Amino acid sequence: MKKIEDIIESGTLELYVTGALSQREAMEVEDILEEYPEVKREVEKIEAALMNLSYDDSFTIPNSVWEGVLNSIQGVRKLNVPKKSTNWSMMTGWAAAIVFLLGIFWMLKENNTLENQVRVTSTQNAVLKGKVSTTEEALASSQELLDIIRSKDYREINLPGNVAVSPESYAKVYYNDKDKIAYIDARGLPTPPSGKVYQVWSLIMDPLTPRSVGLLDNYESTDTKVFKLENIPDPEAFGITLEPEGGSESPTLNQLYTLGMVSP
Amino acid sequence: MNQPDELIFEMQQGSEKAFSQLYEMYSRAIYSVIHVILRDDEVTEEVLQDVFVKVWKNANSYSVEKGRFYTWLLNIARNTAIDKTRSKSFKNSNKNLSTDNFVYVIGGHNDLNEKTDAIGIQKFVDKLKPLCIKLLDLLYFKGYTQTETAEALETPLGTIKTRARNCIKDLRKLTLQEV
């Protein structure tokens, strides 16, 4: 204990605190401090006395010093940077993100709508293409038909309705006596009942000699109601009767719908 | 005072909160040391800021086994302040700065500096012996070694410790109300 007293009274500890000892001496003091708490307490008192040399309640260091320290160690992250500006940039960021997301959703929706429209349109397109080709075919055949019946080789023969059987009915025959071809326009005839078919006859009047020239098969499914018949013998008249399916050897005269004379 | 080893450790681990508490505890004493060397409020604040930035950056170079935290702070503060006195800008604005720093407060001058009074040194300085003031100036404020102090005071090396002991004893009576 004598040794401890000596060290305390020597003034070594005072120089230790002010940092005036050599490194070797300072290390010796460290060892003693670790071992003897009363020496450590003495050091603490010396330190406190020196620190209190500047003690004064009325004096305060401006806050700007500490703020400056913080700014230096953090960059310009905290403290002096007004919170407002941080919030603004954050809010701007969020706003931009929201606008961006809304934009994306809108574009996705828009894209979906457009894709649907494309699908619908391409379907419509296909349908229209089909219709066009059908119409083109129809037009071509109509054109062909028109060309034929307009040509000088064909004569038009009207077949008015038989007043006794079907006064509303009528038919037209376009007849080419050179090629023995006739086109029968049967649009003016009623649709035949099932199991029945229209049969076309060429007639010699005196004596009355009917000869079958053909059946108007598939009447219902033929849109134009124009039928082409060939190998027509030189007729004086054309008649159309309603016969059982497959046709008859001779015309059933009480079912004679239309009859027309070939003008000489 | 009791050294807050735990706060120091936390600061070394990067805790700004611990660092701010250490600043609260030590900044005023360090301020006065810097102010005695530089004698200018604005420059002192500037250097104090530099000192604590250095403390943060070099926190891991301190270890509890190698001495007092306050002694470590003192060294950084004195070196930074003395570096400042050598800088061009400081020399230009303080051409008349005399070298006998701490003593200027009582060194026969009648124009006692109000600013120095404001940092609290004055009230103790009046009651300390002139030799004690000189010792504190060299050892505490200027960071002289034992040998340098002996040379400066033209006294035998062996007397410095005894004189320091007696001087700081007086200071303890004044500041800690010890009897």
Q: Can you give a write-up of this model?
A:
The complex is a heterodimer of chains A (264) and B (179). By secondary structure, chain A is an alpha+beta fold. Chain A has 3 domains: 2-59, no CATH class; 83-150; 155-261. Helices cover 47% and strands 20% of the residues of chain A. Chain A contains 6 helices and 8 strands; from the N terminus they run H-H-H-H-H-H-E-E-E-E-E-E-E-E. In chain A, strand 2 (170-176) and strand 3 form a beta hairpin. In chain A, helix 2 (12-18) crosses helix 4 and helix 3 (23-35) crosses helix 4 (37-52). The longest helix of chain A has 68 residues, at 83-150. Chain A is rod-shaped. The N and C termini of chain A lie far apart (165 Å). In chain B, helix 1 (5-12) packs across helix 2 and helix 2 packs across helix 4. Chain B has 179 residues and is an all-alpha fold. The two termini of chain B are 18 Å apart. Chain B has 2 domains: 5-93, Rna Polymerase Sigma Factor, Chain: A (Orthogonal Bundle); 102-176, Orthogonal Bundle (Arc Repressor Mutant, subunit A), CATH 1.10.10. Chain B has helices at 5-12, 16-38, 41-57, 69-86, 88-93, 114-118, 122-125, 130-141, 146-153, 157-176. Classes of the chains: A alpha+beta (264), B mainly alpha (179). At the A-B interface, helix 2, helix 4 and helix 5 of A face helix 2, helix 3, helix 4, helix 8 and helix 10 of B.
Summarize the structure.
The complex is a heterodimer of chains A (264) and B (179). Chain A is of the alpha+beta class and 264 residues long. Chain A has helices spanning 2-10, 12-18, 23-35, 37-52, 63-74, 83-150; strands spanning 155-160, 170-176, 181-185, 196-204, 209-215, 226-229, 237-244, 256-261.
Please describe the structure with a list of short key phrases separated by commas or semicolons.
heterodimer, A: alpha+beta, 3 domains, four-stranded antiparallel sheet, 47% helix, B: 179 residues, mainly alpha, Arc Repressor Mutant, subunit A, 2 domains
